Amino acid sequence: MKGSSRHPIEISIFDKVLIESDLSATIVRRYTFVNPNDEPETIELSRTERFDTPVQDFRCTTASIDIQVLPLLAGQIYQAPWSSTRSHSLGSEEEIVVEFSFRRDFLNIVPPVVTFEYASTERVLYSIEITPHWPSLFRLSEITITPAPLDSEMSSFLISEDGALIVSERRISANKGGRFSLTILCNPPNIETLELLRIMANDAKEAGVSLSGVSVVLVLHLLTDFLSFVDALETIGLDPERTFIVGIPYSLKEHVIVRLLARGYKHISGPASYPFLPDVDAAIEAAANCGDTNSKNLLIIEDGGYVVPRLHSHYPHLIPRVIGAVEQTANGIWAYQDIPARKRRIPTMNVAECDLKKRRESPHIGDAVFRNVTRLLEADRVGVRDKQVLVIGYGATGSHVATVFKNNGARVTVFDEKRKRRSQAKADGFDVASNIDEAIKDRFLVIGCTGKLSVKINSLLRASHGTYFVNASSKRLEVDHRDLKSITSSVEQIPNVGSKYHLVNSRDLTILADGYPVNFHGKAESVPDKELQFIYGLLFGSAVHVYQSTGDFASLNWPTSMV
To answer: Is 471 helix (H, G, I), strand (E, B) or coil?
Structure first.
């Protein structure tokens, strides 16, 4: 039995926050009023919400209670008064729940900081849960919260598996400061200065190159070094309002998007998976509608051949406005070459096949593939030493992948469709197979380096039980996943490793990194930025050359190799 003294109504407040891709937020605020007394209590539901930043769309979403929300009051403190149109009676231990929703921005200017405060002039219990669009956002952050949680033994917060920040309940009262404060400092990896890009950008600026008035579509890997590339383009006038960015799904890093948003780049798409042509279409259409719609003012820089083929097939009316394009992958060049020669109308710089890129990039890619494959296999408690490994494709990347695995104790066999490459692999000291369906038998690990669908249904059915497959090229290629699906009875996800496919022939195959390029898997940045800064140097130089040529086929030819 409770004592006869009257206790104040207990008030709990829970904010559920969803941070959108542009770092604006939708918030649902739930009030719970509980009568702790033995006798009924009459309460007046009336509050004035106070915010230190502008909010939009503040409204009550509880239909069962008649709540009147007055117009938002703007000033140094933004206020949203609300009250019920009548009194409410609460029996002992009875509760009333009222919910509101509103929107606000969460992002301050560089460095990216998420802040959230709640102030109260009365005693309340407060808790909050924040779910970001980018799941790793809070794992890259320094988080400070006051006051401490009610239970001193409780953690101040936790981050759920899906990346949500859950802040435990704490008491807010006027005599103890009356304020809850949450500060999240996004703490991404340090960005190294890429000296080559800085020098090239300054030289281009001094030469009078200016992207003023140009709309730029970038379909690239959003890794940390992409920020340095954007710095270089900004030096020659890149305008965030006229820049349309689409990240390659398997490689994009959330901290890069956060930094870009903080710098004013609002036209960013970060697709989660393939296919992402709707994102490409949206970028094309937005760029076309930006600025003078009658000028030659569109520039394309891409990785994978998405935009230029799409312009030819779906937006031919925009081609006269395209200055030109830069493509950095062989896969993209192959996509361009699929366009009949007589219909190719966009001059394109071919960075993919330049000698410097082939000579300098491939050894680093080989090292990155080995590092990530080793890490993934260790998570599955196996290694590659003395294991049978098949490398499919003995081009620039495949030859270095084969070499680094051999140097680390694997027994490597090479297959390539081209006889000349098989001969080269044999001359380099590798065992060579002339038939992939036979070569794939009894292999522990199969690594595709062709940039195409190299492992099809016959090969999959001949693979031994327990074989691991790796994509060391591009997109979700190498293993034909439609063929794989047709012979699979069930799929098992292996955390931090990939997917295990249980086949209809009672064999199991494991696809590391779910079939995406293994050198980009997880937090990996593929290759250290400074080691490959010349790649962005090639892209930058190519973009400048395309821009200065202003779509002149005579000066560019098609496609033109850079260097």
So the answer is: strand
Q: Write out the two tokens for 218.
A: 């970038």
SS3 313: helix
Q: Which domains can be identified in the chain, with CATH numbers?
A: 10-186 (2.60.40), 195-356+527-561 (3.40.50.1480), 359-520 (3.40.50.720)
How many beta carbons lie within 10 A of that of residue 481, not counting itself? Answer: 18
Q: Exposed, middle or buried: residue 341 (CB in 10 Å: 0-12, 13-18, 19+)?
A: exposed
170 neighbors 125 (Cβ within 8 angstroms):
yes
What is the DSSP track for 400-450? HHHHHHHHTT-EEEEE-SSHHHHHHHHHTT-EEES-HHHHTTT-SEEEE-S
Amino acid letter, 13: I
pLDDT > 50? residue 558? no
> CA 40, 43, 44 angle in degrees (round to 5)?
165
Buried b (16+ CB within 10 A) or exposed e, 292-302: eeeeebbbbbb
In SS3 terms, 237-304 reads as CCCHHHEEEEECCCCCCHHHHHHHHHCCCCCEECCCCCCCHHHHHHHHHHHHCCCCCCCCCEEEEECC
| 3-class secondary structure, 340 | coil
**Tokens describing residue 182:** 């949450």
What pTM does this model have? 0.71
State whether the Cα torsion 198-256-278-306 is positive or negative. positive
Read off the pLDDT of residues 494-523 as tens digits, 9 standing for 90 and up: 988 899 999 999 999 999 999 999 988 765
Phi-psi region of 399 (alpha: psi -120 to 50; beta: other; left: phi over 0): alpha
User: Which DSSP letter does residue 464 get?
Assistant: P
Long-range contacts of the stretch 83-86 (C-beta < 8 A, 24+): 83/44, 83/45, 83/46, 83/47, 84/44, 84/45, 84/46
Spatial distance between the Cα atoms of 311 and 283, rounded to a whole number of angstroms: 11
Q: For residues 544, 548, 551 and 557, what is the CA-based torsion angle, rounded to 10 degrees? A: -80
In the chain, the N- to C-terminal Cα span, in Å, equals 88
Predicted confidence at residue 113, as pLDDT, reads 64
Stretch 299-304: mean pLDDT: 95
- The closest alpha carbon to 223, from 193, 253, 202, belongs to 253
Residue 111 preceded by cis peptide, ω within 30: yes
